[in-house]
Amino acid sequence: MPMRKVMKANEAAAWAAKLAKPKVIAAFPITPSTLVPEKISEFVADGELDAEFIKVESEHSAISACVGASAAGVRTFTATASQGLALMHEILFIAAGMRLPIVIAVGNRSLSAPINIWNDWQDSISERDTGWMQFYAENNQEALDLILIAYKVAEDERVLLPAMVGFDAFILTHTVEPVEIPDQELVDEFLGEYEPKHAYLDPARPITQGTLAFPAHYMEARYTLWEANENAKKVIDEVFAEFEKKFGRKYQKIEEYRTEDAEIIFVTMGSLAGTVKEYVDHLREKGIKAGAAKLTVYRPFPIEEVRALAKKAKVLALLEKNVTFSVGGALFQDFSRALINESEKPVIVDFILGLGGRDVTFKDLDEALAIAQKALNGEEFDEVNWIGLRKEIL
Amino acid sequence: MAESPFKADIERVQKEYSEKMTPGAIATIPGSSVINKTGSWRVFMPEFYKDKCVRCYLCYIYCPEPAIYLDEENYPVFDYDYCKGCGICANECPTDAIIMVRETK
Ligand code: SF4
Ligand code: SF4
């Protein structure tokens, strides 16, 4: 019988790691994900998880140890956040390029300076072009489930890519919710033992990994990485379906909520999706045709699903907790690009909000709605809007 | 000059070397680095003076490529396909039997 326990997302991530039975966990603690390696080290110390727990001196070493262990042919896990993920940056490219199915739990936190330990997505969004897959959890249950799903997708022969699973700092990492812990046997059936077929060290079959590629080969290597990300789109759907059959919880790359006949659809990721769904209910009661959509998968970017979603709305209001210094946030660029050649497309309005742990309230969403409604009515509006900004102190 | 001990390897790898990209660009043929002729990078080359050599083999031990092997009389021989001209051998040689000279190609 699956066990129900009240726990934080950090604990849920540790439980997911325990269920996935990685052989090597390397970690350097960083707020707000410190509890993940702490809990895992408890599991290891209590003999509940048969794994090598490597205490390293930095996140750069943590991910490097994972790369080494994964190249040797075992399942690996680590957790980090913010500057920690940034410190892993160069090795993230190596892990993806070597096609090692490492899974990282990321407690999504803002980046310095100024130092801020609270939630936004700038850390993982900054790593969107490394070749890693990215999943974002709305609640603690999703944090656990998506880690199991991430392993299954990552280790698929058609994919072989590392994956990060993000859950919002403090909003999820430190907040308790009931979480269903699936049966170990069922997880074993779902994931199976990790058996690498290409990249693993074996004295009987010497290979060189992470090798040098001259201009004659490098482009092809990058192309196969791109191709793997394309393949992952289909594999993710298959794994979501299998997960639903086994565990009864349904996942989609883009989860829609009350989008039928919606004029304005709010699009977001992570824990904010919960708030937005409730806000949509509130708007529907007032007779405003609004809907919500949540990206569970951000990389590979679910372009087909975005196009399908776009057909349903007149205005797409993107609510994002990150800034790129191009136009607006990362979602705005991806959505704009996905729809640029469509003959009929909704108006896209971008909202930057909730940075560094700033609360996102109904009042903030009202502010966003007012701008989205301007766009809907053909009035003038700004493409990029900072919501909840304290203009009086600027 | 004695023949390179890598000759057979080079021929094998060149024959077998697959142009097919493996996942993660893994090199699956052992010894495939022999087709990467590091000698093409060279600016300086070691010149060897046999009469000064005491056959201590410090050069042989220290060469990072390794591009030095021994002939029938156990004197060092330099394989210029792989010698990258780093000068370590010349630096280590106690009798100055190796002098680095600028190579003109
Ligand atoms: S110059 Fe460097 S590479 Fe060349 S033989 Fe001497 S030690 Fe080896
Ligand atoms: S180090 Fe100098 S003396 Fe010794 S073997 Fe090499 S060339 Fe000869």
TrEMBL record, chain A:
Major enzyme class: oxidoreductase
Annotated keywords: Oxidoreductase, Pyruvate
Catalytic reactions of this protein: 2 oxidized [2Fe-2S]-[ferredoxin] + pyruvate + CoA = 2 reduced [2Fe-2S]-[ferredoxin] + acetyl-CoA + CO2 + H(+)
Pfam family, one: PFOR_II
A single GO BP: response to oxidative stress
GO MF, one annotated term: pyruvate synthase activity
Entry EC no(s): 1.2.7.1
InterPro entries given in the database record: PFOR_II, Pyruvate:ferred/Flavod_OxRd, Pyruvate_synthase_PorA, Pyrv_Fd/Flavodoxin_OxRdtase_N, THDP-binding, Transketo_C/PFOR_II
Domain Pyruvate:ferredoxin oxidoreductase core: 262-364
Span of domain Pyruvate flavodoxin/ferredoxin oxidoreductase pyrimidine binding: 16-240
Quaternary structure and partners: Heterotetramer of one alpha, one beta, one delta and one gamma chain.
Entry-linked PANTHER family: PYRUVATE-FLAVODOXIN OXIDOREDUCTASE-RELATED
The name this protein goes by in its record: Pyruvate synthase subunit PorA
Organism listed in the record: Thermococcus barossii
Organism ancestry: Archaea, Methanobacteriati, Methanobacteriota, Thermococci, Thermococcales
Automatic annotation (TrEMBL), chain B:
Keyword 4Fe-4S (UniProt): yes
Cofactor: [4Fe-4S] cluster
InterPro entries according to UniProt: 4Fe4S_Fe-S-bd (IPR017896), 4Fe4S_Fe_S_CS (IPR017900), PorD_KorD (IPR011898), Pyruvate_synthase_PorD (IPR053389)
Superkingdom assignment: Archaea
Keyword Metal-binding applies: yes
One Pfam assignment: Fer4_21
Keyword vocabulary terms for this entry: 4Fe-4S, Electron transport, Iron, Iron-sulfur, Metal-binding, Pyruvate, Repeat, Transport
Coiled coil: none
Single GO molecular function: oxidoreductase activity, acting on the aldehyde or oxo group of donors, iron-sulfur protein as acceptor
Residues in 4Fe-4S ferredoxin-type domain copies: 44-73, 74-103
NCBIfam families from the UniProt entry: PorD_Arch (NF040684), PorD_KorD (TIGR02179), PRK09624.1 (NF007203)
Subunit description: Heterotetramer of one alpha, one beta, one delta and one gamma chain.
Annotated protein name in UniProt: Pyruvate synthase subunit PorD
